[in-house]
Each structure stands twice: as structure tokens, then as C-alpha cells.
Write a structure and sequence with these properties.
single chain; alpha+beta; four-stranded mixed sheet
Length: 146
């Protein structure tokens, strides 16, 4: 009798682990799925003159690391918009030879972020998706300009 009771309890517990408590569960199966979802998710909310809204995403086998990567990705985008400096070098040369004039153009540009502090941002929305053997986290961050 005890063996039958243990088997019944075991079956009930195994059924509990198979049921999903998450509604509208999504799984990313291809890069196209990921790109479509990111495009829809990130284009939901547009930024204004006073508020910058950016989307960040991160992937990891650990959920906490995935969330940290997503927030960091979004914060880097905010820093790039608000506090970056652009260093560019443009060279135009004209050389004359026996066949005519040869023109060359070379442009080098770097965006630099140095000693940047992003404080006062707000996570407006966060979405966590199961992707292969890890987690994909997408965050939408809002940063108010003063």
C-alpha cells in the first residue's frame, strides 16, 4: 500500500513540473525570430525631446547575468547619445600623373566614452525569453534629460 501511495505522489509531483505557469510563453528558435521580436519590442515606445528611450538585450545561460547584460547594453546606448565625443580625421588627396588626376578620400571616425555616469534611468519594461539553452532578456530603459 505504501509503495502505491509513493508512486501516486511521485506521478502527481512529476505532473506539476510539466505544467507551465507562464502565459503566452515564447521561444526564440532562429535569428529571424529574434530580429522580428526585437524590432517590435524596441519600436513600441518612441523617444521625445525630453526623454530618451532605448532598448538593450543580453543573453546568458544564467538569468541574472542576462538581465545585467541587457541593462548595461541599454545604458551604453544612453551614454553614447548623451555624453559621447566624436573624433574624426578626414584626408583628401589629389595626385597628378601622366594619365590624369587621381583623387583619394579617407575618413576615420571614433566615438569615445570616457568617465561616463548614467544615473536616474528607469526600466520601463523587461521581457525574458527562453532561447536555446539560455535566457534572452530585453529591457526598455527611459532616461529623462534635465
Amino acid at each position: 500500500m505504501r509503495i502505491i501511495l509513493i508512486m501516486i505522489i511521485g506521478l502527481m509531483l512529476s505532473n506539476c513540473t510539466n505544467s507551465s505557469y507562464v502565459k503566452n510563453k515564447k521561444t526564440i528558435t532562429s535569428p529571424d525570430d529574434l530580429q522580428k521580436f526585437i524590432n517590435v519590442y524596441c519600436n513600441k515606445n518612441k523617444q521625445t525631446d525630453r526623454v530618451i528611450k532605448v532598448c538593450g538585450n543580453g543573453w546568458s545561460k544564467d538569468l541574472n547575468i542576462s538581465e545585467s547584460k541587457a541593462v548595461l547594453s541599454a545604458k551604453i546606448k544612453i551614454a553614447d547619445i548623451t555624453q559621447h565625443s566624436l573624433v574624426s580625421n578626414e584626408v583628401i588627396t589629389h595626385k597628378e600623373n601622366g594619365k590624369g588626376i587621381t583623387k583619394t578620400y579617407d575618413l576615420t571616425a571614433d566615438s569615445k566614452l570616457e568617465d561616463v555616469s548614467i544615473a536616474g534611468y528607469k526600466i520601463v519594461h523587461k521581457k525574458v525569453l527562453k532561447e536555446k539553452s539560455g535566457w534572452r532578456t530585453l529591457v526598455l530603459i527611459e532616461y529623462k534629460l534635465s
